[in-house]
Amino acid sequence: MKVDLFDFNLPEELIAQTPLKDRTSSRLMVLDKETGAVRHDVFKHIVEYLQPGDALVLNDTRVLPARLFGMKEETGAKLEVLLLKQLENDQWETLVKPAKRVKVGTEIIFGNGQLKAVCLEESDHGGRVLKFKYEGIFYEVLEQLGEMPLPPYIKEQLEDRDRYQTVYAKENGSAAAPTAGLHFTEELLEEIKARGIEVLFITLHVGLGTFRPVNVDDIDHHEMHAEFYQMTKETAQTLNQIRESGHKIISVGTTSTRTLETIATAFNGRFEESSGWTDIFIFPGYEFKAIDGMITNFHLPKSTLIMLISALAGRENVLEAYKQAVEERYRFFSFGDAMFIK
User: Fold this and answer.
1) What is the pLDDT of residues 228-246, one digit of tens each?
2) The predicted structure's pLDDT at residue 86
3) What's the CA gap between 196 and 242, in Å, rounded?
4) 101 exposed, middle or buried (CB, 10 Å; 0-12, 13-18, 19+)?
5) List of domains in the chain
6) CA dihedral 153, 170, 228, 149 (to 10 degrees)
C-alpha cells in the first residue's frame, strides 16, 4: 500500500498555532465509519454521542518539559538537549543539537549548574546517552529548567505550558502530549461520568517518533518506534465487563488506541493487567480487536496517524471527511479541532 494514498491538500494556515481559551470550545466533526456521513458540532457536546454503559479510555501520560538549553563546560558552546527515554541510574537517551560538539566524555551545564550531564554514548542522528547529576529530585529540577517540546509544526511560543498537558495528566514520561485529550476539562469529564459512562485510564508514553515522517514509498516497509505502555488490573477487568455486556469502548486518541489494540492482540481479544513496549502499526487491512470508536484530532498528510484512522473508518471516508474539514476551515493538529469516529 503506497504512502501517497494518504495524501491530501492542507493549507498551512489551518495548522493551529495556539490553543483555544476554552478547551471544550473546539469544533467536533462526527464521522460515521459505516456510511461516511459527517456531522458538525462543538466538542462540549461530545457526551451526546456516548451511551450509558460505554467506556471512554484516556491516556494519563504527562509531558515532561524535556527540552533543555545548556552549554559545554569546557568551551561555553551552546547546546540543546531533548530527553527521549529514561534508562537507569539517571541515564537518558537524548537528542543533542549540534551533536558534533558532544562526544563521549563531554560535560554539559544547565542553568546555574543545578543540573549537569556527561555523555556516555554516541549514536546516529544526534542521539546521545547522557548521565545527569543534580541535587534533590530530578523532575523538580526539570520543571525549573526545561521547556515543553512542542511539535515541529508549531512555531509560536506557548504562554501557558499547562495547555500542552491534559487536565488528567499523571504519569511522567512523554515527549509529546496525547493531544486528543486536550479538549477535555474536569467539568466535562464529570458530566460524562454522571451520564453513566465509565472513564478509564491507561498509560502510553508518547515518543518523538510520533512526528517522524514516513520515509518509505510502501507503508509495509515503515518501522514504528517503540513506546512504553501500562494497564492496571482494575481497568482491564472493567473493560472486559463492558465488552461482555455489549457496550462500546471509545478510545481517546491514537495513543490509547494503540495501547488497547496491543493488549487485546496479546490476550486474544481480552484485556489483562500488563505493561511493556509496543511498536504496533495500524493501517487499512487491520482488524480491530479492542475499540468500537475513537476521538482524535486532525492529522498530518501521509502520517501513520491518518493511516490508523483510515483503518478504522475507511480511507475514502476519512479523505472525504478531511476534504470537508479543509473546506470548513477546521483547525488541524495538536491544538486543533476534534473528530469522533463512531
Assistant:
1) 999 999 999 999 999 999 9
2) 86
3) 12
4) middle
5) 3-63+160-341 (3.40.1780.10), 67-145 (2.40.10.240)
6) 20
